[in-house]
Amino acid sequence: MSTVQIQNDKFYQAVTYVFKSWTALKLAVEMQWGGVDSEDKHDWLVDVVVEYFGKHGKETYAEDVESILQQVMADEFNTLLEDDSAYQVSKDLIKLYAECIEGNYSSIDLLRSRHATSVNNNIASSKKVKSQLQIEDDDDDDGENEDTEIIDAMDTSEDVSSNNQNKMYSSKKEPIIDDEGFQLVTKRRK
């Protein structure tokens, strides 16, 4: 592989990692604001940006890249960016492109490791949530009726509230705390 091809491949990876960590674009893809082909539009945007940098090289300006990003987000994902994120992403891409031209891929390697860590954390979180949901489902099947638990809790709170009402008339505006540590909310008399 030639040096230019390696630089192009590395920059393509860099754009992909930056876009996958850009919250606005990530949400637009995950929520399918661009329709069912949102993921394809994401990939197409990566190609457009890489091609733009390929044509303009070091003569690429952050404002121009920002304009492209804002236009694509508006046209393809129906998203108006009111924050400064498109400009920040543009500056990051210009910096990464300059590093690729110099043969410095350390920032791209850092992006890759962050992306891998993020993916691994998401997978671990997903497994944890799934196991918690499974445990909750198992708890629901152990024969106890939730309605009975709610009624029992209501009976307990009624007993506590009747005791607390008697105390309420004898004391002035002091908070009434039940046995479980909750403050009783009462109506004010006129």
Automatic annotation (TrEMBL):
| Pfam families per UniProt | WGG
Q: Where is the composition biased (Acidic residues)?
A: 135-158
Q: Where is the composition biased (Polar residues)?
A: 159-169
* GO BP: any one term: rRNA processing
InterPro entries attached here? Pre-rRNA_process_TSR2
User: Keywords on this record?
Assistant: rRNA processing
Q: Which domain of life is it from?
A: Eukaryota
Keyword rRNA-binding in record = no
Q: Tell me the segments the record calls region Disordered.
A: 127-175
Give the family this protein belongs to, as stated in its UniProt record: Belongs to the TSR2 family.
Supply the name of the protein: Pre-rRNA-processing protein TSR2-domain-containing protein
| Source organism per UniProt | Gigaspora rosea
